[in-house]
Amino acid sequence: MGIEEQLGEIVIAPRVLEKIIAIATAKVDGVHSFSNKSVSDTLSKLSLGRGVYLKESEEELIADIYLYLEYGVKVPKVAMAIQKKLSKDAVRNMADVELNAVNIHVAGIAPDKTPKPALTDLFDEDFLND
Description:
Elements: H1 14-26, E1 31-34, H2 39-43, E2 52-57, E3 60-70, H3 75-95, E4 101-110, H4 119-122
Parallel strand pairs: 3-4
Antiparallel strand pairs: 1-3, 2-3
Helix pairs in contact: 1-3
C-alpha cells in the first residue's frame, strides 16, 4: 500500500513539527542551545517548543528559531546549515510538510567551554526518557 492510497485525514500537531525542527536544529554543528523569544515565553507553560515558533499565514508555514551558538563558529554558515537541513531534509522527509521560510534569530554566543545541554535536557518530553 503506497502513501498515495490514504484512507483518511492525517493531522500533525504544530507541537510535533516544532519538536522535529528543534531536534534537527540541535544536531547542526555550532548550535549550542535554544532561547525563548521573550520572558513571558520562558514563564509560560505554552512555550513547549523552547525557541521554535511556527506561524501560518496565507497557506505559508514559517519557522522562527531563537538560539545560542557555540563560541568561534561562523554565524552565517551555521544559520544557512540550519535553513538547508530544515527546508530540504528534516521536516519534508519526516512530516511531508513544506516550510516556506526558516528565520534564524541568534540570541547570543555561548562562552567558550560552556557545556552543551544534552538533547534530552532541551525537550521536556516523556518519550525521550524511555
